[in-house]
Amino acid sequence: MNNGWIKLYRCLMDKPIWLNSTPEQINILFAILMLANHEGKEWEWKGEKFKVESGQFITSSTKLAEKCGVGITRQNVRTALKRFEKLGFLTYESTKSGMLITIVNWGIYQGEGDTPNQEVNQDLTNTQPRPNQDLTTNKNDKNVRMKEIYKVSNDTSLHSDEQRVVDEWNSLADDIGIKKVIKVNDGTNRKKMLSARVKQYGADEVIRAIGNIRNSDFLQGGSRSGFVINFDWFLRPNNFPKVLEGNYDNKKSKVSVQPKKYDTENFGLKF
Questions:
Q1: Are residues 97 and 63 part of one domain?
Q2: Are residues 127 and 179 in the same domain?
Q3: What whole-number distance in Å separates Cα of residue 226 and Cα of residue 217?
Q4: Beta carbons within 8 Å of 264's beta carbon, 6+ residues apart
Q5: d(CA 53, CA 82)
């Protein structure tokens, strides 16, 4: 992974993905380009076979943030991925082995031989990309799934907020081993509760509550009962405020501090 090099075209600096990105997002963009596999790769883990194509790699928001260096947070990564996907630069989805990131059109501007600058300029960050057949299939499959899962409304911000919550949950699931969210079908109780929590508290507060799960051994299955939090339990109106307020956080042990004794005759500490 640390060997070799990548092509980087100057026309990138004229594109929205560069011009309208924050310094943190530019950092993340470079990291994604550097981490993508130049060639297809296969491996076996826990008896299962896994495969990625060129322009793809498996990671998590935590690992990607670490690769980007000091000052880059998991939230920075999630925000950048969402934006880059909207621009058609990449796709990302959760898999059994982690988050699969696919750089769209990787073969066009990273393939062998010289690629005409005009073609790269057109395809590098086009909102309607022209990827190779395999990547087209992956992106189309994901778009179909997203339409099935998030038939919410024409309000883009509402759709985006609910997606942010689900992405945050699945990122946490990758890190601590709880169940991921696979479906949020329209009309279901899960969908209604998700919409209600986002509307009542806002997406940022819901995401903050998800973060609090990291601080609770009880919610992660550390109690005698073996209870492990799941998405539906988390969204229930009676449970959510308690998680948000940190009621299930691990109790901090109290340290007993003995008062210092003084030698009144010598006006010094008595050891």
A1: yes
A2: no
A3: 10
A4: none
A5: 21
